[in-house]
Amino acid sequence: MAEKSSVLVITDGGIRHASTRIRAVNVFQQIEKKYGISWQWISRVSPVGRKTLYDRIRFAIGKRVRWLLRHLVLFFFSGNKTIFCQRICLDSMELFFIRRNSGRLIFDFDDALYLDYRKNGKEYRFTRMLKNAAEVIVSTEELRQYCLDLGIEARIIPSSVDTELIRPAVKKQINSINIGWIGSPVTTRYLDDISPVLLRILELGSFELHFMGAVRRDWMNHPEVVLHDWTPEREIEFLKSIDIGIMPLSDDEWSRGKGGYKLLLYMAAGLPCVASPVGINGRIVINEMNGILAATNDEWLSAIECLAKDSEMRNRLGRNGRNMAVRDFSLKRSSDRIVELLKKK
Questions:
Q1: Residue 213 and residue 229: Cα distance in Å, rounded?
Q2: Could you tell me if 84 and 198 lie in one domain?
């Protein structure tokens, strides 16, 4: 691919959508900066919120306008371009436009999206997208295995974190241990699974729970539970304010396909992690090297208590995690690997 070449990036979500931001926008900003490869971005949805009736109407109209715009762009301007689709499955007409214009399609997904399509009786749309892609990128071995079962090769490129932007904070003398979690309203259910443990931890005293992006539950109505709204700027400050990062997961097919991004954020910030040994979590966290794996409530309680009592252990696991994040999961590393695919003929 020539230095001045251009990539058309199509995403399912807007900038507040984690996968869009992590696996598309951040990556292509880095690629443009380092390699001079320009990119244009079309998202399925606009950044307009849906709080009022007016906002909902704007959002619905905006989706349809963007759908039309996407068709026009692929019909007229996709010739010999690389089209990078993140999570979104194009319809048959759009795929025809790409083939007609000799475009090259790269499809990236980082969740077990096929389960949603299967539930709605439309898994054929997902498999059609896979079969029309020149390259398929996934975030985990579980997702790669799904592709292999269909006879489709897929390349694993884990989600990445900007280790230049997110760095360990200098920790001051602390009187309490802040346990932190970053997620979304949908993934709050994973906190529910270990809520008895978290409430037990608060009973021990000298602990605070900080949740960013969660939706409030009844069990969170405790003076030592603090909910934070998510923004990119607040995320960085949030990571600086906590001492232990947690990532509970249920052991189900959807959860086994998740990419472990929370753990990468914690590690980039030099924080020790406690995580469920589900899917990629069990490969990112090396027990008592950069975090602790906990499968049962008793193991969760023991892991958190152990880290809370031992500042040297917290520091050691945090340093090891930081080194791993820089070495294996940095934005620079994933961007270089994407560029390799962009340059393929």
A1: 5
A2: no
Residue 101 and residue 120 in one domain? yes
Q: How far is CA 160 from CA 181, 267, 312, 321, in A?
A: 18, 11, 27, 14
Q: Does this model's pTM top 0.85?
A: yes
Same domain? For 321 and 300 the reply is yes
Three-state secondary structure call for residue 234: helix
Same domain? For 189 and 315 the reply is yes
Q: In this structure, which amino acid lies at residue 342?
A: L
* Strands, sheet with 291-293, edge to edge from the N-terminal-most edge strand: 225-228, 207-212, 177-182, 244-247, 273-275, 291-293
- Same domain for 117 and 241, yes or no, is no
pLDDT, one tens digit per residue, over 56-75 is 666 666 677 777 888 888 88
Q: What is the pLDDT of residues 258-307, one digit of tens each?
A: 999 999 999 999 999 999 999 999 999 999 999 999 999 999 999 999 99
What are all long-range contacts of 90-94, with beta carbons under 8 Å and residues at least 24 apart?
A: 90/10, 90/129, 91/125, 92/128, 94/70
Give the pair of three-digit tokens for residue 40: 């244009």
**CA trace torsion 186, 192, 193, 199 (10° rounding):** 150
- For the chain, first and last CA: distance in Å? 8
Question: Does residue 322 share a domain with residue 339?
Answer: no
DSSP state string for 60-89: HHHHHHHHHHHHHHHHHH-TT-EEEEESPP
Residues 203 and 321 in one domain: yes
Degrees to nearest 5, angle at CA 23 with 236 and 252 = 90
**Are 337 and 311 in the same domain?**
no
Looking at residue 57, its amino acid is I
* The two structure tokens encoding residue 140: 């985990």
pLDDT at position 88, please? 95
Task: For residue 106, give the H/E element and its range.
Answer: strand 104-109
β-bridge pairing 155-156 and 273-275: unpaired
**Parent domain of 99:** 6-160+331-343
